[in-house]
Amino acid sequence: MALTDTAPPPQAQPAPRKPLSPAWLTLPGLCFLVFVLLLPVGWLMALSLKPSMPGAFTMEGDWTIANYLRFFSQPFYYSTLIKTLWVSALTTGITAVLGYALALIIWTASPAKRGWVVLIVLSPLLVSIVARTYGWMIMLGDRGILNQALLGLGLIEEPIQIMYTAGAVIIGLVHVFVPFMALCVLTSLEKIDPKVPEAAMTFGASRWAVLRRILLPLTVPGLASGLTIVFSLSISSYVTPALMGGPRSGMLTTFIYQQFAVTLDWRFGAVLVTLLLALTLLVLTSILALAARMTAKWSK
Amino acid sequence: MITLDLNTTRLSCPHYVPISEPLFIYTNNQQGPRTMNKLDRRSFLASTGAITLGAMIPGMGRAADGGFTSTVFGGVWEQNYRKAIVDGFEAATGAKVNLQLGSSAEWLTNAIVNRAEPEIDMLMLPYPDSIKAIMADIGIELTPEDIPNIAEIAPVWWEQYKKRGVGLDYASYGIAYRTDLVDQPITKWEDLFRPELAGKISIPDIGTWGSWEMLVMLAKLRGGSEDNLEPAFEALAELKPNIRRYFTSSTDAMSMLDAGEVVAVGMTTNIPPYALIDAGKPVDFVFPEEGAMVGMVSYHIAEGAANPELCKQFINHAISREAQEAFCNAVIAGPVRPDAKLTGKAAERVPALDQLTLFDWFKIVPQMPMLTDRWNYEVSL
User: What transmembrane ranges does the database entry give (chain A) (predicted)?
Assistant: First the structure.
C-alpha cells in the first residue's frame, strides 16, 4: 500500500502527435520553384504588357497590348513561330520513330548486350554541343564525308548543301534527343510481360499486329512522356539552331536572345517568351490529354 | 582581344555548394511514425529552406573581404589577364579581385538591374555594351587625379567614354580567308562581292561582335555614314548571294573556315584566324585596303561600388606600362599606352592605331533596335 501511496500520481498521457504528411517534404522544392521559376515567369508575362522600351526592365508605364499587336502585325515574327512549331513537331515525330525502335532493340537484347546498347544510345549526351556540331560538319559539310562519298560514287555532280539549313537543325536535334525518347519508351516496355506478345504470336498475330495492337497501346504513357520531353526541349533549344542553322532557319529562341541581349528590349522579348510558353503548354496539354484518353479504360 | 563567345565561355556559379556525402538518411521506422536519422524533419526543412533562400539572394557577402568584383572573359584570355595584371595587383595591395565570368550583355544587364546596389563593382565591357553602359549612366567619372596613368594613354580611350570609362586594349577587325580555295587573294571589302564567291562567305549575324562594324563599314563603302545606314542595307542585299551563313561567334566562324564550308569570313578580329594560321592551316588574315575597324575593352566603375578607390588603383595598375606590355604581348592586342612596346608576334600582328577606324558608337547604339528589326525582316530572311 505504501508503495501505492508514494507512487507518483498518474500523469495525463500526451496525445500522440499526428504525423505530418510526407508531402511537406516537397515544401523546399516548391518554394524554390515558386521563387526561381513561377515568379520570374509571371513577372516577365506582366512585363510583356508594358510599352516596348529598350533598356527598361521595370514595370513603369501603362498597361498595353501594343507588343502583342506588333508581334502579330509583323509576318516575320509569327512566321518564325510557325516555323519553330513545325521544326519542333518534325523533330519530335522523327525522334519518336527512332527512339521507339531503339527502345525495342534494347528491350529484346540479351542481358549481356543490353548495357552496351544503352551506352551507345546515350552517347550523344556525352559529347559537348560544340564538338557534336563540328562532327556533323565533318559528316554533312560541302567537303564532308557524305558529299565526298556521293561525289565519288558519281551520284551527284555538285555537293548537296545540308549544313546550315533547317534540315541540319532537325538532324542535330534528333541526334541528341533520341536517348530521351528511347529511355521513356523503355520504361513502359519493361512493365509488359514478355509472355503477352509471345502469346499473341502463338495465336497467329504478325509482328506488325503485335506492335500495333499490343505494344503501342501499352506503351502510351512512356511514349507520351517522351513526346512531351522531346517537344519541350526542341521548341526551347537555342544552341543547336544557332550553330547548325542557316540564314533562314532561325527559331524563336534565337530572337528571344536577340531581344534580351542585343536590343535590351525585354518587354518585347517577354512577348516572345509568353507566346512560346503558351504554345508549348498547349501542345503538351494536348499530348497528355490524348494519352489520358487512350489509357482511361486501364483504371476502370 | 575579343575572343569570347557564348558557346565557349564558362559561367561562374558563386553559390556552388559542394556536397561530398549524403545530408541525411531517411528510414521508414516500423516502431512509430516516419522519422529521420541524423537530421530531423524540422532541421531538414530549415536547412533546405536556408539553402533555397541563400541561392535566391545573389551577391551576399560580396566584397566583404576588402576586395572588389569585376568581370573577365574566359579561356586563355582569363589566364593571361590574371597572370599579367590581376596577380601583380593582388600581390602589391593584398586585396582580392573577384572575377566573374559570363557574357558582356549579362554583365551590363546586371549593372542596370542592380543599379541601386551593384553586384559588379567594376565592369569590363567591349563595344557596344561599353557605350550602352555610358548611355545608361553606369559608371562614375574617372579622372587623372584619381588614376594618374590616364594621362599616359591615347586620349581617345578615355574621352570617347565621356571620361566615365578607360580602355584596356584594342583589337582590329578584318577579313580571314582560305588561300587554297580562292583564285585571287582577298585584299579589300569589295572583294567579298566577287561573283565567284557566291554562297562561300560568312559575315556576323546581327548582335554578334563585328556586326555593327560591318553595317557601318558597308554604309561607308557605299557613301553612307553612322547617320545614314541605308546604303549598308543596299550593300547587304547585293552581298546576299555570296552569304553562306551569318556566323554567331568567332569559334563558329573559324570552324566553318577551317572545314572549308566558307572561303572567307568578313569582320573578324585578328586573334582567331591567327590561331588557325599558327596551326598550319592555309589561312590568311588581312586588314582591308578601305580600312579596318577597331575594337576596345574598357573599365567602368559602378556608382555605389563597394571599393571604388581600390577599383581606381586597379585601373591605374592595368594601364601601367609594365602591365600593358605584359598583357598585350600575351594576348596579341594593341595597348592603350603609346609608350608600351610590343614584341614578337604582337609586334608583327597588331596594327598601329592610326591604321584603324573608330566610328561614333553613340550614333549607332540608339539605332540598334531599329537596325535589328530591319536586319530580321530584310537580311536574315
Answer: 23-46, 85-109, 116-140, 160-186, 214-239, 268-292
Q: Dihedral (C-alpha) A173, A179, A182, A188: value to the nearest 10 degrees?
A: -120
**In contact, B369 and A255? CB cutoff 8 Å:** no
- Domain definitions of chain A by residue range: 67-295
Interface of B with A (CB under 8 A): 7-8, 33-34, 41, 44-45, 48-49, 51-52, 55-56, 103, 105-106, 108-109, 112-113, 132, 136, 199, 206-207, 243-246, 248, 251-252, 255-256, 259-261, 368-369, 372, 376-377, 380-381
The verdict on pTM exceeding 0.95 is no
State the complex-level ipTM: 0.76
**CATH architecture of the region B68-170+295-351:** 3-Layer(aba) Sandwich (3.40)
Q: Cis peptide before A124, with omega less than 30 degrees from 0?
A: no
Q: For residue B315, give every residue at least 6 positions away whose Cβ sits within 8 Å of its Cβ, in sequence order, or none.
A: B122, B142, B147, B149, B166, B299, B301
Provide the 3-class DSSP secondary structure of residue B331: helix
Cα–Cα dist B139/B111, whole Å:
9
Topology of the domain covering B172-294+362-379: D-Maltodextrin-Binding Protein; domain 2 (3.40.190)
Q: Tens of pLDDT along A128-168? A: 877 888 888 889 988 889 999 999 999 998 888 888 888 99
Instruction: Identify the CATH number of the domain defined by range A67-295.
Output: 1.10.3720.10
- Could you tell me the residue ranges of all domains in chain B? 68-170+295-351, 172-294+362-379
Counts for chain A of helices (H) and strands (E), in that order: 16, 0
The string of pLDDT tens digits covering residues A69-110 is: 999 998 889 899 999 999 999 999 999 999 999 999 999 999
Residue B77 grid coordinates = 584570355
